[in-house]
Structures are given as structure tokens and as C-alpha cells.
Amino acid sequence: MVPSQPLLHAAVFALAVLQALASNTFIAAVYEHAVILPDATEEPVSPDDALALMNKNMDVLEGAIKEAAQQGAHIIVTPEDGIYGWRFTREAIYPYLEDIPDPAVNWIPCTDPTRFAPAPVQERLSCMARNNSIYVAANIGDKKVCNCSDPSCPSDGRYQYNTDVVFDPEGKLVARYHKYHLFRRETQFDYPKEAEAVTFETPFGKFGIFTCFDILFREPAVVLVSELQVDSVLFPTAWMNVLPFLTAVEIHSAWAMGMGVNLLSANTHNISLAMTGSGLFTPEGPAAYHYDSSTEEGHLLLAELSARPRLSPTY
Which CDD domains does the annotation name (predicted)? Predict the structure, then answer.
């Protein structure tokens, strides 16, 4: 008798959990993605055209996710702006956004795509995680309707957030983080009213998540480590290797060593903007890193990391 698809997914997920629990380590992956960018325009494209571009980028990310899973990875991080790029005004980015619910709703978009508003990007990311039995972290855009009773509501009646999402190996949405420290050119997005400290538990440690520029501030970066005691941090970024930032590898490796946690850093790849430098960084130094300022190719990195570095005798 052939098991049904839901039972098969449950069995694979249970096996992955048992394997992770049996070990003090896990295999992490990050993918540095050469993003396929839209044409620069101030006018919004149609929703179909927006989704077509995002699907091109997700085709590439799906290939990386499959390869990472085949090599035994338990979790993979993809870059900031990795699904639609960054050439947008506030109006032009709107067709690329989806309404992302609070993870407390206990939602698997892959199996229940019509439960909320249309969310084809969340559905596809959820299926990537579910079909490959791996945690998937990605950066997308969230939209939230507001009204005139809210004094902070923008004139167009909506909030737009630079947002990270995480789906577990069953495809369930387990984390949503709105970037708090926007870089000066991110005028297409709104600032959240408060900094969010987002964590989620896995069989291989407690994870936190934030985005790019956030790493330079106490909230949420230091709070996650010092107050919420995370073991590892997921870090989608679009980091330019120019002053005053120095190289991504140097800064992010130093941060992981100084904070005493793992940092899974996935950078976008665009050599014309000096964007490169991804890595799997630990309190002892880089477990793996990639820096390429000469080619236009993406790159997948994997490494075995300590699940709970705080328990190490050298912490």
C-alpha cells in the first residue's frame, strides 16, 4: 500500500526531527542570489507581470533549496530583495506585495492557499519548504490596510513593510519579521511602530531573525542575543561592500564572534553595486564564506554548525 502524500510528509518531517534531536549539530545553508531585476519604472506593473518576475527569481531559489536539501541541510536562508529586487518607488512596488498573516494563525499556504487573500509567493515558498523537508527563510513584502483613525496611516491607506518569512519543513509559516531600520533609499517601505524581536524554536536550537541594516543597532539585534538568548540568527541582507561598511564577510563574522552565536548570512549578488559576501559564521569564526566581485553567478554555501553554541565549553 502506498502512503498518502500528507502521511509521507509527516513521516519525513518526523524523521528529520529525530535526526536533529539526536545530534548537537545541524547543517545550515545560505544562497547568494544574483537577483533578476525588474525594469526601472515609477508606474506599477500588472499583478501578473509582477508575479512573472518573482517566479523567475523563485525558480533559481528553488533550485538552490533542492540542492541544499539533497546535501542534508536542515535550514536555508535566501537574501534580502531576493525575489523582486530593489528598483521601486512606493507605488511601483505595490503589485509585488502580499498580506502576510501573524504566524499564530497556524497556516500552511502550500496545502491551504485560499485561506487568506491571494498569496502565490507565500504558497510557493511554503511548498519549497514542504517538498524538500527544510526550513526556508526568504525576504518578501508585506502590505497592511490602515485607516484615517490611525494618525500614522500613510496617505494611500496602507502600510508596506520589508519583511522576512520562515516556513518549517511542513510548509507552515513560523516567523514573520518587519525590518525596523530601513536604509536611506528604502522609501518604498514604512517603518514599523516598534522594533520586533522575532524568535522561533527548532529541534536544533532557538533562532532569531532580522534584516541587513538592523545588525548595526541594539534593537532587535543585541536584544535577540542578550535578552532572548537565541542560538542562531537568520540574516537576509543586501550588503554593499563600500565604506563605511567594509566587507560583509568581515563585519558579519566579527558580529557572530562578538555575540557568541551563529549568523546565517545570505547576501544578494550584484557586482555593479559591490554586493557580495555571504557566510555561515560561528563564535569561533567563519565555517564557510563566499566573496566574488568578478562574476555574476549565485553561490550556495553549506556547513555543519553547533546547534547550541552557548553550551560549548569555549563559549
Answer: biotinidase_like
Q: Of these residues, 32, 62, 80, 186, which one is catalytic?
A: 80
Does any domain span residue 5?
no
Rounded CA-CA distance 12/32 in Å is: 27
Tens of pLDDT along the chain (315 residues)?
555 666 666 655 555 555 544 479 999 999 999 999 998 887 899 999 999 999 999 999 999 999 999 999 999 999 999 999 998 999 999 999 999 999 999 999 999 999 999 999 999 999 999 999 999 999 999 999 998 789 999 999 999 999 999 999 999 999 999 999 998 889 999 999 999 999 999 999 999 999 999 999 999 999 999 999 999 999 999 999 987 777 999 999 999 999 999 999 999 999 999 999 999 999 999 999 999 999 999 999 999 999 999 887 776
Q: What DSSP string describes 147-183?
A: -TTSTT--TTSEEEEEEEEEE-TT--EEEEEE-SS--
**Residue 77, class by beta-carbon neighbours within 10 Å (0-12 exposed, 13-18 middle, 19+ buried)?**
buried
Domain presence at residue 2: no
Q: What is the dihedral of CA 81, 82, 87, 90, to 10 degrees?
A: -40
Domain extent for 246: 25-311
> Is residue 191 in some structural domain?
yes
Report d(CA 209, CA 233) in Å as an integer.
5
Is 194 annotated as catalytic?
Answer: no
Rounded distance between C-alpha atoms, residue 98 and residue 144, angstroms: 9
Catalytic-role residue among 110, 179, 186, 206 = 179
Question: Is 179 a residue of the active site?
Answer: yes
Q: How far apart are CA 265 and CA 309, in angstroms?
A: 17
Q: 11 lies in a domain? A: no
- Kindly report the CATH number assigned to the domain that includes residue 157: 3.60.110.10
Q: Reply yes or no on whether 212 is catalytic.
A: yes
- Domain count of the fold of the chain: 1
Considering only CA atoms, which of 215, 211, 174, 192 is closest in space to residue 86?
Answer: 211
Q: What is the pTM of this model?
A: 0.91
